[in-house]
Specification:
Elements (H helix, E strand, L loop, with lengths): L1 E4 L13 E4 L9 E11 L1 H9 L16 E8 L11 E4 L12 E5 L3 E3 L6 H5 L2 H14 L11 E5 L4 H13 L3 E5 L3 H10 L3 E3 L4 H7 L5 E6 L3 H11 E9 L18 E4 L4 H4 L7 H14 L7 E6 L3 H12 L6 E5 L1
Parallel strand pairs: 8-9, 8-11, 9-10, 11-12, 12-13, 14-15
Antiparallel strand pairs: 1-2, 3-4, 3-6, 3-15, 4-5, 5-7
Helix pairs in contact: 3-4, 3-9
Length: 337
Amino acid sequence: MKAIGFKQSLPITDANSFIEFETEKPKASGYDLLVKVHANSVNPVDFKIRQTAALDTVLETPKVIGWDAVGIVEAVGEQTSKFKIGDAVYYAGDISKSGSNSEYQLIDERIVGIKPKNLSIAEAAAMPLTGLTAYEALFDRIKVNPDKDQGKTVLVLAGAGGVGSIAIQLAKKIGNLTVIATASRPDSIQWCKDMGADFVVNHHHLKEELDKIGHSQVNYILDFVDLEGYWDVAAEIIKPQGHIVSITESSKPLNLDILKLKSVTFSWELMYTRSLFTTDDIERQHEILNHISELLDNGTLKTTLSTTLNGFTADNLKKAHKIQESGKSIGKTVLLF
């Protein structure tokens, strides 16, 4: 089968930053589904791993990354029970295993959902990783209760990004929260509004902008861009007994003491935790993806697809990574195989 990978961590402009190669089609066993991949999407985690996984070495076998995918089940392992051959599925994958930049992929059925029926392949491929991340941040980490927490404020840092785009929708439509998103360019501001944000504020003047809209402090903060850069201001604008969730990393230790007086809760969110450690609740991702699928099919949520590249080629994958690395991407970029 055809796959696209890399042997060295090279700039995306380098001819060998991605290479196409042939490899053996894997066989399903245990909880595995063998999926014929029809489309996948690119996330920041893709280029971050490409840039760091082979910095000082040349890998003997190309590393295949890519996690979001939509495809058709071609074979099932002996322990599977949730899917059958021919099912259309979507998923965000397992960071410890070979990725979706290949014609076929093995994936644990417990982290797979049924593809939304009313969405195209490309529209569906945009949703798994960001959908799971945003959903877990809101409902597994903060544990938002749509009835009890109705009207509370959530600040979404980087609202126009892939995770921010679906977080705005989930917070508004499912969480019943007042949603404030950050954006600065006209196109990203409009995108956040289209996703359902009640307010869009400029992150370059965050405190002043929050004061202007009458929300100088917020109940929840979702950091999808730069925890270290926002840490001090987040501590100032979070309400007492509020909750901050982050998916980004810090290059230095964070001073948690600045959250103490307000009894603020801080949580990490990593969508891969359940698959990496085969947690007792690993099937929760199967349930979340099926719920998101239902919400997409009934029109409660809408796809965050913004760019489609036709053709499973190294050149198209390079284009997708360039878009992500620009730091100005809106929504999601999808490769149709």
